[in-house]
């Protein structure tokens, strides 16, 4: 997964927001997921440690998670306390926040 910032002028709502470029383990492009998380606020993106779930924690839009199923389908998942714990831990690591 590569996280970049959408800086295209054609979508002013998503301009400056995180864009997730997803690849298979063989480095084949899978999909691009445009988030509403702004680069102007603190954020982190991480993988769940045991399944194909992407966790986004952003101080402007909150928590979101997406699961990759059948190796190609991306769908939002219901937020759980377990996902929140993973997100909070990754956020603390990224920002050195104890």
Automatic annotation (TrEMBL):
Q: What is the designated name of this protein? A: Uncharacterized protein
- Tell me what organism the protein belongs to: Mucilaginibacter roseus
